[in-house]
Write a structure and sequence with these properties.
Blueprint: E1 10-14, H1 17-20, H2 33-40, H3 56-70, E2 74-78, H4 81-84, H5 94-109, E3 113-117, H6 125-129, H7 138-153, E4 159-164, H8 166-175, H9 186-209, E5 215-221, E6 225-227, H10 232-254, H11 260-263, H12 266-269, H13 276-283, E7 289-293, E8 298-302, E9 310-313, H14 330-342, E10 348-352, E11 357-358, H15 370-388, E12 393-399, H16 407-410, E13 414-415, E14 419-421, E15 428-430, H17 432-443
Parallel strand pairs: 1-2, 1-12, 2-3, 3-4, 4-5, 5-7, 6-8, 7-10, 10-12
Antiparallel strand pairs: 8-9, 11-13, 14-15
Helix pairs in contact: 3-5, 7-9, 8-9, 14-15, 15-17
Length: 445
């Protein structure tokens, strides 16, 4: 069955600095949150040393040539803040800027559109040492860092995002400790996220004021959420979870307001200072597009014993990959169409979408990834269906361009890459899915 895409559709692949670069002390780079955690509590990262990843830092020119052979139209990556401001908010590391500038040149030289995140998981340890998102000066530090990047690189980058997956890197990090700094305090989470949102608005406004040629947005991890049953309580529970996890960022970044369900939720309202909604609305700055990281649907049911009266659960009828993500391609269509209906006109990109298996020790067999081909085919089918239904979906980025360090959730044991990486020799080997994606891009279908 054919499922066409527009000729200008951005078929891309993605990764991030902290998961691909290696070279944690080279080029003047400072210590990141993940460097620090690995040094002091390596078990929290499954002993996956960031220095032993794919070494993109040294091999990016060769890797970009391989991306050209693949036919990628765009590559999504991130800047490591600690490479630009390694020791504090004052001193700029020119070597870090030069490194990313050369990488961007290499992409542009072969016709691959650069797409860069300013904050993707890793931040300088000095930021955390000074209070992280809860420090009132965080916004000034981040805006200054963004300005430095825009001035040095802005003429050469087509797409920027302020933050990747703030649901996890901002909210979950302060609610249930699922990301660094691993705090468990809902009130702190609300304040930290509010600071991130105000910072996001400031950076978007700054970018637009500089009259640069690209576009700026943010990347949100979206989980289409379904109820256990048609019982109104279950449906309301699913709505509350979606409003909390995904809507918290969609509503604030696309409408400049906190989700109504959350403002009316006693558990949240009692922890949110009264001035925050007004402050948010006054600072709001619309962005140019929204990136959607989509892996996993979620399911919710009513539970009166939970703080917000919902409890999420795994639908055992749906297969899962070795990472734990449920395989439900229609979730992509549902998420895209929800955003299209709720925030009409906003351009969208699927900025991450992928499936993993754990290594079993046979390099040649691990390259035969029919499961990934099936996953990509069905998710691309749903993306095409959404476009046909009128959604302004402009691109699809597979996660990941090659095997990565999955940080605290899987180390080097999870295989997400179109390209296999031998971490001992740093050799790369295209998987079967690499050749499948190449055909998709060439045929635009």
């Amino acid at each position: 069955m054919r499922f066409p895409f527009p000729e200008d559709f951005l078929f891309g692949a993605a990764s991030s600095a902290c998961q691909l670069e290696s070279a944690p002390t080279e080029g003047g780079k400072g210590v990141t949150n993940y460097d620090y955690i690995f040094e002091h509590e390596p078990e929290k990262m499954r002993n996956a040393d960031p220095a032993k990843s794919a070494d993109f830092y040294h091999l990016y020119r060769k890797d970009i040539q391989d991306m050209k052979k693949l036919g990628l139209k765009a590559f999504r990556f991130s800047i490591a803040w600690a490479r630009i401001y390694p020791n504090g908010p004052e001193e700029v590391c020119q070597a870090g800027l030069d490194y990313y500038s050369d990488m961007i040149d290499a992409l542009n030289e072969v016709g691959i559109t650069p797409y860069f995140d300013l904050y993707h998981c890793c931040i300088p340890q000095w930021v955390l040492d000074l209070g992280g998102l809860l420090n009132p000066d965080f916004s000034d530090w981040f805006v200054n860092y963004a300005k430095t990047c825009f001035e040095a690189l802005g003429q050469k980058v087509a797409y920027w995002t302020t933050v990747n997956e703030p649901n996890i890197n901002c909210m979950s990090a302060y609610v249930n400790g699922n990301a660094i700094p691993s705090v468990k305090d809902q009130a702190q989470a609300i304040l930290g996220c509010h600071n991130m949102l105000l910072t996001h608005y400031r950076v978007v406004k700054l970018y637009k004021s500089m009259n640069l040629p690209g576009k700026i947005g943010a990347v949100i991890h979206v989980e289409p959420t379904y109820s256990l049953s048609n019982d109104p309580k279950d449906k309301e529970a699913a709505d509350r979870y979606f409003a909390y996890y995904s809507g918290w960022w969609l509503d604030t970044m696309l409408k400049g307001e906190y989700p109504k369900l959350m403002l009316e939720e006693p558990y949240i309202a009692e922890k949110m200072p009264e001035n925050l909604p007004k402050e948010l609305a006054e600072a709001f700055e619309p962005m140019d597009f929204v990136g959607i990281n989509l892996y996993n649907p979620n399911y919710a049911r009513y539970d009166e014993n939970e703080p917000m009266r919902y409890k999420t659960f795994i639908n055992e009828k749906i297969p899962r990959d070795d990472y734990g993500f449920m395989y439900y391609p229609q979730g992509l269509y549902d998420a895209v169409m929800y955003i299209h209906r709720t925030y009409p006109g906003i351009p969208m990109m699927i900025t991450e979408n992928g499936i993993s298996k754990k290594k079993w020790g046979n390099y040649e067999e691990e390259r035969k990834d029919e499961y990934r081909i099936d996953y990509m085919r069905e998710h691309l089918r749903e993306a095409s269906r959404a476009i046909s239904a009128g959604a302004p979906l402009k691109g699809y980025f597979c996660w990941s361009v090659m095997d990565t360090n999955e940080l605290r959730s899987g180390g080097y044991e999870q295989m997400f890459g179109l390209t296999q990486v031998n971490y001992e020799t740093k050799e790369r080997f295209p998987r079967d899915s690499w050749y499948y994606y190449q055909k998709v891009i060439v045929n635009c279908e």
